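User: Can you help me understand a structure? I only have the sequence.
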Amino acid sequence: MQDEWSIFSAGSGLAGNDVRDMGIDEGIIWVATDAGVSNSDIRFSDWRSYTESDGLPSSNTNCVAFGEDYVWVGTDAGVARFDKLMEEWESYTEADGLVSDKVNDIVVDADTVWFATSGGVSRFDIDFDKWTNYVSDAELPSTNVVHTVIVGE
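Assistant: Let's start by predicting it. Here is the structure, written out as tokens:
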């Protein structure tokens, strides 16, 4: 038996063809594209796409990350949090405490979410709804275009 490849594109249900990131959470694949974020049960091809009209701060999505209760999507205009239970979006921008609206990467560490942005690193405490930003030379070697956050012991 040979492995079979499946090809997905905007024509088959993805929001866009420029795929920036993807991941699987509880059997659902999430795909960040230049035209929104899409998801589908990995057993089927029932794609659902989300854009600005659904609650994203921008349809130009860069990254996805998963927590226990939320899916996080980074865009070029802030970050969106999808509540898995309520199936609703909530957005956060610089006005809410994010250090920069261009979110390049996201890491979820229990009840803390880390955001790599073009202006530094932001940490969000889910339990206390509190932002902490790391932007100075004393906190980061550089605040220019941060692309990856790694959380570890």
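Now, to help you interpret it: The chain has a mean pLDDT of 91. The chain has no helices and twelve strands. Let me know which part you'd like to focus on.
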